[in-house]
Amino acid sequence: MTATTYATVTWDQLHRDARTLAETLMPKGPFKGIVAITRGGLIPAAILARELDCRLIESISVVTYDEESKGTPKIIKDPQAAGDGEGFLVVDDLVDSGITARVVRERLPKAFFACLYAKPTGKPLTDLFVMEVPQDTWVLFPWDTAPLFIAPLAKKATNGN
């Protein structure tokens, strides 16, 4: 069994990667609208909406488990304005196992699917991504972490810690 590694994405990096994605998407547009996959796709979708000058923003919410059991993925918020997805851009922060992406693709078969980061298992389910991440890497997004004060090394050395 391989140990899980962690990759921390800062706000600055997320913004740069979203702008990079927007630049690549420019020739594929204009898009009628954007569908953000909640929750991770909300912030990248907002950045893309600004960069692509897109005003129609929808969201889709998929849950794969509840408090008591893991089960079949279920759409709990449908992107009504997107129809079958034709002309729409679907955005997420990360495609990992592909479970959510598969459900979204079934619901919006004609949409263009883009995300910031993709793991090998989920990569075939996205049309475009900025960076590939190893499957055993846990991505820590800025909304998952908080900046903490860390004492300087010199202070640690004098305290014997």
UniProtKB/TrEMBL annotation:
GO terms for cellular component: cytosol; plasma membrane. Pathway: Purine metabolism; GMP biosynthesis via salvage pathway; GMP from guanine: step 1/1; Purine metabolism; XMP biosynthesis via salvage pathway; XMP from xanthine: step 1/1. Its EC number is 2.4.2.22. 5-phospho-alpha-D-ribose 1-diphosphate binds at residues 39-40, 92-100. Transmembrane segments: none annotated. Xanthine binds at residues 96, 139. Residues 11-147 form the Phosphoribosyltransferase domain. Mg(2+) binds at residue 93. One of its GO terms (molecular function) is xanthine phosphoribosyltransferase activity. It is an enzyme of class 2 (transferase). Pfam families: Pribosyltran. The keyword Glycosyltransferase applies. Belongs to the purine/pyrimidine phosphoribosyltransferase family. XGPT subfamily. Homotetramer. NCBIfam families: PRK09177.1. This is Xanthine-guanine phosphoribosyltransferase. The gene is gpt.
